Protein: 3-oxo-5-alpha-steroid 4-dehydrogenase C-terminal domain-containing protein
Amino acid sequence: MITHASLLTAWFAVAVATFPFLFTATAPYGKFVRAGWGPFIDGNVGWATQEVVSPIAFWLGHTRGDAIFDDLTHRTPASGYARALPWVFTAHYVYRALIYPATRRMSRTTAATVCAAVGFNVINGVLIGAELAHGSAKPNDAQIIAGAAIMACGAALNIWYDTLLARLRAQRASGAYVVPTGGLFNLVACPHYLGESIEWIGFAILTAPARSTAVFAFWTFANLFPRAVATRAYYRRRFGARAFPDRIRAMIPFIA
Structure:
């Protein structure tokens, strides 16, 4: 059997290696979908399939982590705070797996993308679920307030700008292609990615000193930042530097 510590270490190493790789190979879905990655799949179906795996894997790890990992043999008695954290994670994926694909038309994806996302969500979900079931004492109030505020702000940014992009896609379907502008779109190409990264940083603070949630926050950035860079380059090619000047960064305002 494997230990949670060894799998998490390997998982972090994969994230570190994946980060530079994704600057050269953008995942084939959405505007970057292309042939050569297996059959094409309806975007809404593919998205729901890959995202619903995450809470299932999380609860598997949360309830059976001591049977999966050799080094998780003692379950810490859960405080009310510790019992609430799994539902914070689950709420995010209720939105991502059910509400998100049900409220917008999504571009097609590929079998390779869905399979890779399923694999990621299985490993990530089990690691986080297992560790939160064997967690430490409740953190101090300042940590809870900071983590909750950061996570809430990130989630709000993510949902707001995802919704704006969905409206633009609907307009494009009727013949009008609209450049995303206004708000943080005047500073970055992908404010929705920025929001999701902030959201999981907040969750990592809420759950500290859990290591798996910190690794997930890094994974989120490692996956989304290269895609934001590719998205900015795509917009500049399509609309020109006048529509997307240098001041509009990829994901981090004023920086990158």
About this structure: The mean pLDDT is 91.
